[in-house]
Each structure stands twice: as structure tokens, then as C-alpha cells.
UniProtKB/TrEMBL annotation:
Protein name (database record): PTS system, glucitol/sorbitol-specific, IIC component
Cellular component per GO, a single term: membrane
Transmembrane parts of this sequence: 22-44, 64-87, 142-159
GO biological process, one term: phosphoenolpyruvate-dependent sugar phosphotransferase system
Family annotation (InterPro entries): PTS_IID_sorb (IPR004699)
Domain of life: Bacteria
A Pfam family reported for this protein in Swiss-Prot or TrEMBL: EII-GUT
Species in which this protein is naturally found: [Clostridium] innocuum 2959
Stored NCBIfam families: EII-GUT (TIGR00821)
Keyword Membrane: yes
Amino acid sequence: MDFISDFAQGFMALFQAGGETFVGWVTGIIPMVICLMTAINSIIKLIGEKRVENFTKKLTRFTIARYTLVPVLAVLFLGNPMCYTFGRFVEEKYKPAYYDSCVSFLHPVTGLFPHANPGELFVYMGIAAGITKLNLPLGDLAVRYFIVGVIVILIRGVLTEKIYFRLTSKFTKEKENAEE
């Protein structure tokens, strides 16, 4: 019988802990996220949406910018899932790699800019809790995530671009051979 009551108490404690975490977010992280979103949207409005579009189109001409700066700017300014809309400034043949870069950056950005992908806060806050228990600074973790994230999205963008080009050229050749 003790097993059943212990299980019930443990089960309820799980939800109590979840409730405490939720209250902490409502009084802490959620207001910060709303303020960050408001600030980013205000900056875009001040600069002008057309200027942001023109600047982004120029950046996509260069491989490094296409898979680092553009996804970073898109994720920071628009967040998830709107960051994918920056893909409209990328040539069609680069869109798969651009998308891969954006998707890959949505977690590493969370430590410094939680507004960009609030859904990832569960993951980051879990890691942050462990870092805090070890008495290590969260800022260092967030900066390292961000830097490694930028490196990873460049690598993934370039590799995805190469894979895409290889597959499309193979498909085009097979299609031409089939038509002959």
C-alpha cells in the first residue's frame, strides 16, 4: 500500500514542480521575451522594412553571409517560424541550404535571445539549471552556444548546398537520359 501512496505523492510532486517552473517563467522570462520582441520589431520599423529587404538581398550573394549573417539576422529579427520567410531573398537553388541553416540556429540562439525561439526555452532552461547548480556562469554558456551555432550553420549550409547541387545535377542527367 505504501507503494501506491508514494507513487501518488511523487506523481503530484511532478506537477507541483512544473507549476512552480511555470510561475517562474510568467514572472521572469515571459515579460523579458515580450520586451525583446517589441524592441526587435521597433528596430525593423525604424529602419524600414524595404531597407531590411534590400540589405538582405545583397547579403545572399555571398556564401558565408548566406549561411551565417542572413540566418542569424532572420532568427533574431523574426524568430521561429517567421525566420524562414527571409528565404524569399535567397535564390531558389540556395533555399534548401538556407532553410537548414535557419533550423540549425534556432537552439543555439536561445541563451542570448530567448525571444527568437521560445519553444526551445524548455531545453535551454534544463541545461541552465544544471550549469547553475555547478555555480558556473550562464553568460559563458550562452555565448559559446551562439558562437558554435554560427560555425555549425555555416558548415551545414555549405554541405547542404553541395548535396543539393549534386542530387539535382544527377536528377537532371537521369531525366535527360530518359528523354533520349
